[in-house]
Design brief:
- By secondary structure, the protein is an alpha/beta fold.
- Helices cover 43% and strands 8% of the residues.
- Strands 2-1-3-4-5 form a five-stranded parallel β-sheet.
- Helix 3 packs parallel to helix 5 and helix 6 packs antiparallel against helix 7.
- The longest helix is centred in the middle third of the chain and has 26 residues.
- The radius of gyration is 22 Å and the shape is elongated.
Length: 299
């Protein structure tokens, strides 16, 4: 695998050739096991070789930020995650360049085979995500596509109806969060395809017919954005109950409830038996999008 100067943002093109450009592979390609191994090299304070502090300084972290990282259980892992969060050019290739810049070529040489293996798996997952979503057979009613069920979304084709990874159930007051969801899940390395009613559905057809068609036949899963306003929405109530009827007992993990702001009203009892993706908890907020993306990427 080669390492060239950064050119394009990471996408399928960066994995299409046999020689992968590591400068286009985002840091998320490196798994936790590899990050822990990096910590074994860099966490110990070393008077001879450069440690995690030298790496953090080269990444652009300030003196006070680096001092705060000393309290971390694994400063190396924390620095890597924060570097990824604040820099668009936080790539595998850039990390290798930094290690070489601080004269830790020993780490690059020792871990290079593991890094290449991680990158290979990341590219394979990208290719798999690029394939059209596979519908869940047990919830497909297999009804023929009548005229009212064709041409209902922007990219619909009579021969190949548009498919999605997830239908987003939301009320209008939560639309700002839906926009954030689009940015985090569609416009990043996850490249998921979301069905957002106000954006993807063409006007002029029966709302209930379109909704049931999309949830049952076109979308693998449904994300339910929970809020006080959601509880007052008839449309959200219909969508949620319809989706639940397709997967009694959550056998297919079809519904994923998301809570993105504090609520005054009780959480809907109909969804309490499902695992919640909670954006309001500060201690787990950094994992929110990774968990949600992983859940939506399941076959």
């Amino acid at each position: 695998m080669s390492r060239k100067s950064p050119e394009n943002s990471p996408d399928m093109a960066s994995c299409s050739d046999s020689q992968v450009d590591l400068d286009t592979i985002p840091l998320v390609a490196l798994n936790m096991s590899l990050r822990k191994k990096l910590g074994l090299y860099l966490n110990p304070r070393n008077m001879v070789a450069a440690d995690w502090m030298a790496v953090a300084e080269t990444m652009g972290f300030t003196y006070l930020e680096i001092k705060n990282y000393e309290a971390s259980k694994s400063p190396t892992e924390t620095v890597l995650e924060d570097w990824r969060a604040r820099n668009t050019d936080a790539t595998v290739g850039k990390l290798l360049s930094i290690l070489e810049e601080v004269e830790r070529k020993d780490i690059v040489e020792d871990l290079r085979s593991l890094i290449d293996e991680n990158v290979k798996k990341y590219c394979e997952s990208l290719k798999k995500k690029a394939e059209p979503p596979v519908q869940v057979a047990e919830v497909d009613s297999c009804l023929p596509l009548t005229p009212e069920r064709v041409g209902i979304t922007l990219e619909d084709d009579p021969e190949a109806p548009e498919l999605f990874d997830a239908f987003i159930c939301y009320c209008q007051s939560d639309f700002e969060f839906v926009h954030e969801m689009i940015r985090e899940l569609e416009q990043t390395e996850y490249k998921l395809k979301l069905c957002v009613f106000d954006r993807d559905v063409l006007p002029g057809s029966c709302v209930w017919t379109i909704t049931s068609e999309l949830i049952e036949r076109r979308c693998k899963r449904m994300v339910v954005v929970i809020s006080d306003e959601y509880l007052d929405s008839d449309a959200c109530d219909f969508q949620t109950k319809f989706a639940l009827s397709l997967c009694p007992g959550a056998r297919s993990k079809r519904l994923i409830p998301v809570k993105y702001k504090s609520m005054k009203k009780p959480f809907p009892s109909i969804l309490r038996f499902l695992t919640l993706c909670d954006y309001t908890r500060p201690c787990t907020k950094s994992w929110f999008w990774v968990r949600l993306a992983r859940a939506l990427s399941q076959p």
